[in-house]
Structures are given as C-alpha cells and as structure tokens.
Amino acid sequence: MTHDPSPVVGVPATGNTQSGTLEPGHVAGPAEQRRVAAACVIGNFVEYFDFAIYGFFAAAIGATFFPGGSASTQLLQSLAVFGVAYVMRPLGGLVFGVIGDRAGRRASLSISIGVMGAATALIGLLPGYATIGIAAPLLLVLLRCVQGLSVGGEWGASSAYLIETAPPGRRGVRGSYPSMAAALGLLAGSLLALVFGLLLTPEALTTWGWRVPFLIAAPLALLGLWIRRRLEDTPVFAEIERRRAAEQADVPRARFRDAVRRDHAKALLVTFSFSWICGVGLYYLGSYVVNFLASTVELPRVQAVLLTGLALAVYAGLCPLAGRASDRFGRRRTVLFGCIGHAVLGIPMFMLMATGNAVAIVVALLLFGIVQAPINANTSLILIELFPAATRLTSGSLGFNLGVGPPSGFGPLVAAALVVGTGLDYSPGFFLAGVALVCGLVLFALLPETAGRNLLADTDATQDTRPARPATTTTGI
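Structure for Putative proline/betaine transporter, as requested:
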C-alpha cells in the first residue's frame, strides 16, 4: 500500500477501492488547514447566530412589522415569518448543491455566505410598517426566503470542504466543526440578546435595539467571504475536474433530478433520519429549552439563558470529542449511541428540568449535550461520505434539508403544544424520544459504516459490496 508522504491526504483511485493513492491535487499545511476551518465554521456560526437573535427579538420584530394586533398576534406573525426560512431550506440545498457539484465547493461557499450576510444586514436596515406600510412585512418575508435559500446550501458545502480536505484519520474531528460552530453561534446570539435586554429599555429595544445584532452579522459574513475567496477548491473536486478534462472516466455532472434518483432512495431515507433527530435535538437545546425554563418552569429569564448558555458551551466542547470517537469507533456506532440516549433519556431529562432545581436542570442539560453531540458531529460526516463524489451535494441536499427543515423547525412548536394539550410539564420529551426512536430504528436497519470510505466513490454507501475500512485508516481520501 502506498501512502502519500505529504502532511495531508492524497486523492485515492476510483470506485470503492481503498488501496493506492494518486498525487494530491492540493497540499494543505497547518496554516491552510486553519484557514479552511475558519472559512467553513464562520458561515455556520453566522447562520445560527441569526437563528438565535431572531428568536430572542421576535416580539420586537413583530411590533415593528406587524402593528395593530395584540402582542401575542404580533409574536405569532413574527415567528411565522421566521419559519419561512425552514420551508426554503430544501430548495436552497438543491440550488447550492448543484453549484457545489458543478462549479466547485468554494463557489458554493462564497455565494452562500455572501447572500446570507447581505440578507441578514438588510433585515437590520429594513424600515418598519409605520414607514413603508405593507411593503415592510412583504420585504421581511422575502429576505427570510433568501436567508433560507443560502442556509440550505451552507451546511453541505462547508461540510464537504472540511471533510474533503481533512488529513488521514481526522475526518471525524473536522466534520464536527459545523456542529460546534452552530452551538457557538446560538450561544453568542442568546448572550447578546440577554445583554441588550438588560441594558436597553423595552422602547429602545423595539425601536432600534433589535436591529444591531443583525448588522453585526454583516462584517462577520464579509470576513468569511474574504477568507473563502482565498482558498483553493478541495482535492476531491479538483480530481473530478481533472478526470472530466482528460476524459478518463464518465464523470456525471450534477443535475437537479439527482436529488430524487431512484437508486439513492435508501440513502435519502438514511439522510432524512439522521438529519431529523439532529435538527430536533439542536433546536430543542438551542431554542426551545430556554423558553421552556422561562415560561413552563417559570425560572427568571436571565437564569434560564445562563443555564442553557452553559449547556451550549459544554455541547460545543463535546462535538470535537464526539468526532474523535467517530474516527475511532465508526459513524454508525456513534450515531446510534446518540439516538438510544435520546430515546431513553428524552422524558427523564425534561422531568429533571421541570423540577425547577438548578442542579437538576444542569444535570439534564449536560445529559442532553452528551447524547446530542454524537449525532450532530456525525451529520456532516455521513452526509459527505454517503453519496458519490460527483453529485454528493445535490444528491444529499433533499434528504438533509427536509430533515433539518420543517420537521425539525416546528419541533419547538410541537413541544409547546404538548405542554398545553397534556398539562404535563415534561411532555416535550415525548416528541424528542419518539423522533429518536423512529430515526434510530431506520438508521439501525439501513445506515452503513462510512468511516474510511473513499471520497471519490461513484456509488452511494448503501450500495457498497464490502464495508469500508475502519475510521483510523490513513489511506488517501
């Protein structure tokens, strides 16, 4: 077996073979590895930073764009607009998936963060209903649609870039970075919202205070765009383009219909399943729990934010550890561990939180992070390793964005409805445990082990005739 002597991976041969390497199309030293990581995670950070600040400032946004009704009506209208982004995610995944597969990972990354930053900043600058009338909420909906499109393509493209440039045996750690960045974005957004809520009067918060965090996202997006434009594309995409140019292989170009190919049906079901439990768990931890503690458990808002902030910080630290465990023990075992954890502990965790005892709440939230990190840290990995190289972003986009889109995005609403409908404070655990059980059974039956799989394979992993090598392999990409 020939190993690439460079500090990064070479590009392996075609198909599912695990032996041999080609000359690397891209040499990434430690400095460039850091640039790649920064370029990718900043987009995920901005994405979930926006998620947090919109949720925390939903009441102020509702008063600005939907005046005339009660405060509850304004809030519901604002949250309805918030949900538009989830509906647009699958379409965005398709559009940016085709861009990433045809024009390159760097092109998809650059366009998505540029569009995301511009839409977020424009929301912060958008005049309210009192200034431009009905055009204000209409433009808000349009900008949320644009955000949803860009977000739909961000996760897949950044995951591909991180994993396709990962050193041997380090895909798991690198693939965990988007999940870690998402948690840090949620944490930063919630803490910033808390600070603004403490420092500003309700009037100031409603008139101008809510706009500032949206404007803060703009320079972060510009920084990400600048870093991304300085990168070369991944060695996997470079090799695909080399083969096309040399006409050495029949390398297909991605098309929209690749997202619904019949031979990917099993892989799409797998993708939807791990994405659904990933999304529900993350949105619970990053959005719903703070409202659950403040409204249902009736903790002071500041205490609720600080407790969930602590949980998000711990969870962010656990993501790379879960990625390392995935490299050692494999994707399948690690994800199934997380699903079993949610199915078994989903209800007990909410029972602990419902006590209102700070120690019990911390224990519950730590357990939540421990069982959620193995799922989220592997989502990027499996998404990229599961599908064939030439069409992986297009092929995986539909199942992934359907999973983390509406079914997950409406999870907090389902949780709140369960509390009202059943009268049981711990009833949100029913939905969490139920989703984990369903997804866990599907993944137990269908999820192949993808660790160590050749990233230039021309079929999806569910069609492999032999298992991939262990995750610790140092053989090529």
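Residues 23-463 form a domain with the Growth Hormone; Chain: A; fold (CATH 1.20.1250.20).
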